[in-house]
Amino acid sequence: MKNDFLQSLSKERLLQLIEDYSKNWLAMDGVWFQSVEQKFGMDEAMYHDAEAWKRFTVIEAKRIKQFLNLSENPGLEGLARALQLRFYANLNEADILIDEEKKTLTYRTRECRVQRARERKGMPFHPCKPVGEIEYAGFARTIDDRIRCECLSCFPDVTDAGCCCAWRFHLEEK
């Protein structure tokens, strides 16, 4: 490690730093998006958001997979572990439910920092479903190429008022 100062920090301070880094990352994601949204409109911002997530979600998944030392096909258990290490995993409140009989994992975000921030600013909710489909499917497929993703509820197509979004992952046998 290049940074001696980081090595000197206690576990508690490092955990606080991880949370701050996550907030900074999410803020950066939001400010570039809002800049494009304000200048060129929501459609243009969504286009660039989708393009960024196509690439970023794979990078993030590969690094997490390596960090966790997951096998090539770690299944839904590997995906569950990986989802807990995503940048915003410690910022949003979420549930992970695995149904081994049906070979599915359901990921529900109960509280979403992005939507709450837009709400506080009097902005319309972020129409995240199209980008979420790219993001979650790409992340899962990178963790295990047998996993497919389906959106259960996500703005603007909210079908579950008890959460901000919900995604189901299916493990398909080859």
Structural class: alpha+beta
Question: How helical, in percent, are the residues?
Answer: 40-55%
Strand content: 15-25%
The pLDDT mean sits at 94
Order of helices and strands: HHHHEEHHEE
Work out the number of β strands: 4
Unreliable residue stretches: none
**Strand line-up across the major sheet:** 1-2-4-3
Number of helices: 6
| Radius of gyration from the alpha-carbon trace, in angstroms | 17 Å
Please summarize the sheet with the most strands.
Answer: 4 strands, antiparallel
Form type = globular
Q: How many angstroms does the end-to-end distance come to?
A: 41 Å
State the oligomer. Answer: single chain
Q: Could you characterize the architecture of this molecule?
A:
- With 174 residues, the chain is of the alpha+beta class.
- It is built from 6 helices and 4 strands.
- It has helices spanning 4-8, 11-40, 42-68, 75-83, 113-120, 129-143; strands at 93-99, 104-111, 147-154, 165-171.
- A 4-stranded antiparallel β-sheet has the order 1-2-4-3.
- A hairpin with a 4-residue loop joins β1 and β2.
Short description:
The chain has helices at residues 4-8, 11-40, 42-68, 75-83, 113-120, 129-143, and strands at residues 93-99, 104-111, 147-154, 165-171. The model has no long low-confidence stretch (mean pLDDT 94).
What is the topological layout?
Layout: H1 4-8, H2 11-40, H3 42-68, H4 75-83, E1 93-99, E2 104-111, H5 113-120, H6 129-143, E3 147-154, E4 165-171
Antiparallel strand pairs: 1-2, 2-4, 3-4
